[in-house]
Structures
1.
Amino acid sequence: MKNDQEHPAVATSPDGDPWLLTPGPLTTSPTVKQAMLHDYGSRDSHFIDINNRICRRLTQIVNGHKTHVCVPVQGSGTFVVEAMLITFIPRSGKVLLLVNGAYGKRMVEICSIHERAYTILETTEDLPVDTDELGRQLAADPGITHVAVVHCETTSGILNPIETVAKVTAEHRRSLLIDAMSSFGVLPLDTSNTPFNAVVASSNKCLEGSPGMGFCICDSETLKKSSGNSDTLVLDLYSQWKAMERNGQWRFTPPTHTILALGQALTEFDAEGGVAGRGRRYRRNCETLVSGMRTLGFKTLLPDALQAPIIVTFLTPADPNFQFDGFYEGLRKRGYIIYPGKLTVSDSFRIGCIGHIFEDQVLGLLDAIRDTLGVMNVSNCGP
Ligand SMILES: *Cc1c(COP(=O)(O)O)cnc(C)c1O
């Protein structure tokens, strides 16, 4: 018999890669990867058709097709977050930033670099953003023109109360900008009950395309008034939209393969039943993961009521035999990639429920965790 430590059972995706249980990049389906095996010129009419179809579909997902338009941008998710903030907040504006994790703090950094006036309303990483205080601050400071918030703060996996944030912001007649990077396509977001001026997300995360582009779905009236706000050449949603209106083309070289992959990913998203169907699969992944980990003795950072079915933060076991690097390596050898924690409050690690993964992979991961803990000689998984 071979030693288990040298020859553990290795799980792989259909393409032979480890499963990615992370906040991104994520596992994609074989058919999404196959869709990228073409070279298109940016002026090719077939390519332009795919691009238009993607933009229309993305706008429908948030029920914004009558009022909003979709503007895509090259780059990772942060590129489009930055593009949204500097295109819509004029240099004379002031934004209230709701912060309860690293992605909220990243918006602070963006506003600071681009010298947009801001005020921060911060809660700890294990608490949702404070909508009562939001109302009070908007009432007290008429200089605030915009509110910006992260829908699911991927730092902890917490779900922020987006409908209430939108309601309070609308009551005070301010503009709302949303980073829905890790929730778009899974957590319902609908312009009819959650009014917003702009929301951003990316091709990878819950839409399960390949990384490489972000998009902003924004109210067309807001967009038309945003000319000249951006202080960069490339991160300017107004200019990108203008160019696309003119000839259907991206302003600079488009990520053609990423767009082809996203077209296929959206076909698969629809076949799964859209937001409802994908949400169901991720919730099941999340429930299986959390209950399996609790059976092993692990503790989640968040109570179930605050947990989004996106990524789960587990507290690092106090057992001195537990070391994250060894744990990570043990799981990687067995075919599963997890992620370190990003909390400032306590030691933790994260396991994602998103991407082209199913309950079988979560069950396989739990087996791999059990094996790895045995090899590491960890007996107590509590913090
Ligand atoms: C992933 C993510 C981003 C963007 O991150 P990139 O690494 O730039 O793709 C932004 N906001 C949230 C909430 C995210 O989860």
Note: Residues 304 and 382 are 17 Å apart (CA to CA).
2.
Amino acid sequence: MSKQEISAVSKLKEIEIKIGKAKNRIVAYDGEPISPTLICVSKNFSADDIVPLLKAGQRVFGENRVQEAQSKWPALKQQYNDVALHLIGPLQTNKVRDVIKLFDVIESVDREKLAKKLRAEMDLAGKELPCCVQVNIGQEEQKAGIAPEQTIELVKKCQNEYGLNIVGLMCIPPFDEAPGPYFAMLASLAQKANVRYLSMGMSKDYEVAIMMGATHVRIGTALFGKRDVN
Ligand SMILES: *Cc1c(COP(=O)(O)O)cnc(C)c1O
């Protein structure tokens, strides 16, 4: 293994340990014990960078761009057929068909038009992908996601009108603010919407997110190092 490969794998182990420790400090605990799932965010990194993590046993990955995912994951999934690939980026309705072919979970459902298209395309494909509703938890203009006060209504609509399997909520809190209150807000919304999963927490704040009840943390930089863009 190259130096870069060894580093990603050793960081994976470090993060798993930190997740284990954060888990013991869950403050927003309610219900069954949570064992948070690590989603390795491999955007901007190549198949060569991803393979060492697959070899080390990691199976859950996240990508935010459909085209980029199509360029590396079909081959990787052929070799590692138990991978779960999460779409964590914005989804245009004209990409829905491609996404259903390649991905296993869609975390970025944020509008009714998309829900409608997902229903139609999943019926065509004979597949049912679990989905999360993405919440614009800090109500930031430049961010994707449904407004907090419209979240419960969208979840119900996705479930009742489009029969989508909405398993949870996802958010990205404002970059330069303390994330804890935003994570707490997402947890409370999920409880009210009666959905189980909370995808929240990235490289710099995943331990806080876990303490606030995250079931999924999405980590890129802390594993792979800095990306050139985005
Ligand atoms: C890039 C990205 C991440 C990972 O961010 P890091 O800070 O590199 O860990 C997580 N979630 C989403 C939606 C992303 O786009």
Note: Strands lie at 37-41, 60-63, 84-87, 105-109, 131-135, 166-171, 197-199, 216-219.
